[in-house]
Amino acid sequence: MKGEWLLVRMKGRPKEKRENWLLRKIDDKDAGSGDALVERALTSVLTDRFMAQIAGDKGGEQSLAGARGKSFATKMAAAKDHNAKVGGKQRKRRKRNAALPGFVKPQFATLVDAVPTGNDWLHEIKYDGYRALIAASGDKVKLHTRNGLDWTDKFALLTDAIAALDLPPCLIDGEVVALDGNGNPDFSTLQKALKRGHGQEDPAHPLHLFAFDLLSLDGQDLKGLTTIERKERLESLLGTAEPPIHVSDHVLGAGETLFRSLCEAGQEGIISKRADAPYRSTRTRNWVKVKCTRRQEFVLVGWTKSNARGRPFASLLLAQHEGRTLAYKGKVGTGFDSATMDELAKAMASLTTNKTTADVPSAEARGVSWIKPKLVAEIAFAEFTGDGRVRHASFLGLRADKPARTVKSEKPAPVPALQSTVRISSRDRVIFPESGQTKGELADYYTRIAPLMLPFVANRPISLVRCPQGRAKKCFFQKHDSGAFGKAVRQVPIREKDGGSEDYIYVESTDGLLACVQMGTIEFHGWASRADAVERPDRMIFDLDPDEGLDFNKVKQAAMDIRDHLTDIGLVSFAMLSGGKGVHVVVPLTPGHGWDRHKDFASRFAQALSAAEPDRLTATMSKVKRKDRIFIDWLRNQRGSTAILPYSVRARPGASVAVPIDWAELDRMKDAHPFSIEDLETLLKRSAELRGWGFATQALPEI
């Protein structure tokens, strides 16, 4: 429970002895729209079954009519035993093959001297904590440090909180932090928490996990997906989690504003990530970090004696690896409290050596007690001097998660300059004659909307609607390419019915979208499977196509009814306005079944709905059958068929756009095309309320 709540004592009925209370959520920043929990959590917490399974369980019925005393207790006990038996079988079935994912080396960010600009980047808070890779599967959880050390026991309360989420097999990348009294991440608070020893976290001040990436899910390797799609899937997986589990928020563009506000608040800085980049287990320039103050890791190589009574040392000598040698970087003499000094003195006592472990000038080496280069400390400092020494250094804490051999100097690199390789010609050509939008404006729309669109279009075979001379003139579909679109547009060979194969188009980046726009593309339609798993569909789409002139309110009601029927069989679904006449009901699925089963399920589901309400719905494409009805177009779910993709522009008057919406918004919509490319800023702003839209971990049920 978050935010402010109101507990109201209700007036009782006449002669009623018990007190009645009403708990109501105050409309504050933590108040969500719609019913996200009941829309996503579709199975019973008791038996792990969805509504249709519960309704079909005749053996679970217990009539309580007239039952009192022992009879009532007996029936309740029988119901409890039945549910325990059914629930045990259901959970056992679900937990098969649920091994923990293995450790993966994390991706690291490159230090740069400025915040990258443009919508190609998403920006996150740089958390002041310990990097963690969390493998989870049901009640099994293992937490690894950035170097693969198993610290599950050290973070016992946190891993217990993750286990309580009962997650499918997954590997999550994130940061473990401690919060100070103001609720801000604080490294020294984390250090104090870790000093308590394994499993000795304070329940009143728990450690928190800020998850920012998802590397695998339910057996799927997600590292090849774009950053923005991995984050959307992470949001879908953990979006309803409560503290101490959080999904790290991000902003698209506007990185300078976020950086400035964090620096003013005394935070460490930001991490900026290429929205269209895959995950790579190394340090890359697709992830960059910009710091408010300079902070780096150093190896401790010695200490100097203090003249102050009770102070075990005056300063620590610092070094970093440069090539094969340890280069001296100066001293740090502030930032210690008495407990920290005692801890450091104890740690250094066992590492004493007579050998000089770094090349320190004789004047600064005088009176130094040397130690083996094993301890790593995090140091804040103002700058490096001309001779490579730290200025105004302050000790922040030891880093037990980082081996000394990996500590190197970080020097800010220039911020990566992203320049499109695609040149848009004839920018002034009018593409939408009714409203006047040009080819250049269309390209600008796709450039800025790309981070929101890529999770749905990238690495998916697509068909293009090309209108080289504008939407009012000749337009045509294209799904094959022999290389005329350029290097940014890829090809994947797909087997055809005759046994041969053809190269189908797919894109992976903003430049891929723009290369298609340069060739006159307006619309993007996608397969229900990915280019790297063509025979394993991962989404089902029911396109509600109303007869000409049919009241849109009837379409909205049909979409909500279909959502409810899908909910009854345990499937989460999402709504999208097509940008034309209808609504798409989108059902994300975990790949695993083939096209025959996919098509059969969609067909039977649509046929059952139309048979139940033949005056309102039809599952037949025939124009005659569609008179005054809504056609449930299930044919989108057969191999080779496509559907309009989220955020694609439509080749229709006004340059309307296919737009994802929350189910709670649907009732307010007056038609299926309320947004156009002119509403770009609105679409970007409202996307923050749609995190996780279109993603869910769920298999096609055996029905």
Describe the structure concisely.
23% of the residues lie in helices and 26% in strands. It has 703 residues and is an alpha+beta fold.
CATH class label of the largest domain: Alpha Beta
Oligomer: single chain
Overall geometry: globular
- Per CATH, the superfamily of the largest domain is DNA primase, PRIM domain
Low-pLDDT regions: none
What is the share of helical residues? 10-25%
Q: At CATH's second level, what is the architecture of the largest domain?
A: Alpha-Beta Complex
Distance between the termini: 36 Å
Strand percentage lies at 25-35%
Round the Cα radius of gyration to an integer and report it: 30 Å
Counted by DSSP, the helix tally is 15
Major β-sheet profile? 6 strands, mixed
Count of individual beta strands:
35
Mean pLDDT: 90
Number of domain units:
4
Structural class: alpha+beta
CATH topology of the largest domain: DNA primase, PRIM domain
Enzyme class: ligase
GO molecular function: ATP binding; DNA binding; DNA ligase (ATP) activity; DNA-directed DNA polymerase activity; exonuclease activity; metal ion binding
EC number: 6.5.1.1
Organism: Sphingobium indicum BiD32
